[in-house]
Amino acid sequence: MDKRKRRVRHGMVKERARILVVGGGYVGMYTALRLQRKLKRELNRGEAEITVVTPDPYMTYQPFLPEAAAGSLSPRHVVVPLRRVLDRCHVIIGEAETVDHARRTVTVTTLATEEEGTGARRLPYDELVLAPGSVSRTLPVPGLADHGIGFRTVEEAIGLRNHVIEQMDIASSTRDPALRDAALTFVFVGGGYAGVEALGELEDMARYATRYYHNVRPDDMKWILVEATDRILPEVGEELGRYTVTELRRRNIDVRLGTRLESCAGRVAHLSDGARFPTRTVVWTAGVRPHPLVAATDLPRTARGRLKCTPQLTIDGVPHAWAAGDAAAVPDVTAAEPGTECAPNAQHALRQARALGDNIVHALRGEPLRTYAHRYAGSVASLGLHKGVAQVYGHRLKGYPAWFMHRAYHLSRIPTVNRKARVLAEWTLSGLFKREIVSLGSLEHPRAEFELAAGGKPSPEPPGDPKGSS
């Protein structure tokens, strides 16, 4: 008799089911959360166990990263601690290196692996959820690895905020006109959500900060957005995309469409249209690709490297394996055109996670699986304080109404009442008091001062670190 059938009797799991969730992002956290709620009785009886393997002990709510970078939100309020939320799960902080589904094992390295000297662990499982997410899609641009700054993690967001304020400090104190010009030139590559929202929020913050500098004015700064296609924010539609370009240009932001970054070697941004900008800030937000773990599995993948899934969120042709989110190619059954896949965004990830968790429970209990179907509701984007664009169910909003909807929507989506209350409190206080513009770049190297005092040398800064931008 099939193992799954032997687990089920009168709709209840009768044999211990080991569920392994790889990834602690949107899909990983919400799937595990759904499972621990739906399998509460089975977990209490020891008939099921849920293990979550994730490189970070928290889930980052990425739509709030631009506001964290601009100082509107505290970094700790845009992350959700997994151990607190997943209190019925076994959370392992580590990296999944390979997946051998034929043997039902995942190879994992943890923070203790190197010091133990025993090699990577092999975790067995009965049901596998692969949700490793995505990583930045980079190109072989000269100088990018040395000088580029990403914008996918809370560490990068806060590092970029510190870096921008530090550049303003450098420009204010230097007597070298060339150094001042480079310090006040900020190049953002990528016209999607991450690039446009990060640029909009940080330009807004820097413009506000100039009132506290005696020799730096808003017009002294150059903000440049580089996009390889002929439009930005394609998710909000062509009309709102054009509106966004117009609004950014009204703020003296140089938007260059149909343009690519060809090099940033020597701290000079060379663009495909022939323009050259000496700059100490190149922010790379030009798309994502599936996590490298996907290629280290024996599971079927699409031509684009994503896991090939069914509308029920199982991996196509593979029993006891599930996937969703950025690393999964999930058919969009609501699309008019056959072969369309769900977009790799948070809107689908949140809903896929709930459906995935429910379907695992259905499978364990011998019940029919349900098809994931969600018609795209629309998109919202912030362009800075009180500025935004939104397209929701065919309705277009601009300016303050769109910005308000952006905040209301994401406040409703960030997990836990605790986080909702803290975010709302911070927004309320920021409306009553002035914006904080302090750079805490030294937090990235907290031992530097003590190492000098003890007679040593400060540890070298890693390549590409925003603090290493001298």
Automatic annotation (TrEMBL):
Pfam families: Pyr_redox_2 (PF07992). It comes from Streptomyces glaucus. It comes from the Bacteria. Residues 450-470 are annotated as: Disordered. This is NAD(P)/FAD-dependent oxidoreductase. The lineage of its organism: Bacteria, Bacillati, Actinomycetota, Actinomycetes, Kitasatosporales. The keyword Cytoplasm does not apply. Residues 459-470 have a biased composition (Pro residues). Belongs to the NADH dehydrogenase family. Residues 18-347 form the FAD/NAD(P)-binding domain. Keywords: FAD, Flavoprotein, NAD, Oxidoreductase. The keyword Kinase does not apply. InterPro entries: FAD/NAD-bd_sf (IPR036188), FAD/NAD-binding_dom (IPR023753), NDH-2 (IPR045024). Gene3D superfamilies: 3.50.50.100.
